[in-house]
Write a structure and sequence with these properties.
This is D-aminoacyl-tRNA deacylase. It is found in: Cytoplasm. Belongs to the DTD family. There is one protein chain. The protein is α/β, with parallel strands linked by helices and 207 residues long. The protein has two domains: 145 residues, D-tyrosyl-trna(Tyr) Deacylase, Chain: A; 52 residues, no CATH class. The chain has five helices and eight strands. The strands form two sheets. Strands 1, 2, 3, 4, 7 and 8 form a six-stranded mixed sheet that branches. β3, α1 and β4 form a beta-alpha-beta unit. α1 crosses α2 and α4 crosses α5. The protein is globular and about 55 Å long. The protein starts with a strand and ends with a helix.
Length: 207
Amino acid sequence: MRAIIQRVTKASVTVGEEEISSIGRGLCVLLGVSVEDTQKDADYIIRKILNLRLFEDESGRAWTKSVMDQDLEVLCVSQFTLQCVLKGNKPDFHMAMPAELALPFYDSILENMRSSYKPERIKDGKFGAAMQVHIQNDGPVTIELTSPTGPSDPRQLSKQEKQQQRKEKTRSKGPSESGRGKGAVRSRQDPNASSGADGDVSSEREP
């Protein structure tokens, strides 16, 4: 999941000629959901949006207060184009979650954000609509976030686990034992070759 978080003095969303949502000082968040996103990704993004210290305190000290600390508003706008992959100069959006799945997932993000903060402080645009987003960036301050998604393919997970196990077994042998064994084999094969034991151990440690 990707989010573009902007500190704003005001922001609003219009569809056609109708203004459907607006906030004063706070955060405007553009949110792009990918096909691989899970609740773990949503929880990470929600936590960061609400707790990032992008505001000053009462004495004017910068980067000390979050939107919740200052009782400010958040305007969220769904933006699948954040999941763009370029093919030459043509944007491709196959990494974006399909709309029929993204809508309930996005709605759940908003609900969780409201339950974690104050419902009346969380505003949003209109999912799937052609929106005009008016942002008055304060600073400017813009933060890009990407949730730490792990591999979703079980085969990929299994492969990583096996690689880690091989590394741990190699370390448990100790560099001297492994190096001596390899050096002896190389000496028998080519008496003129250098042992290179350290290099061999290194390559064995990092398959």
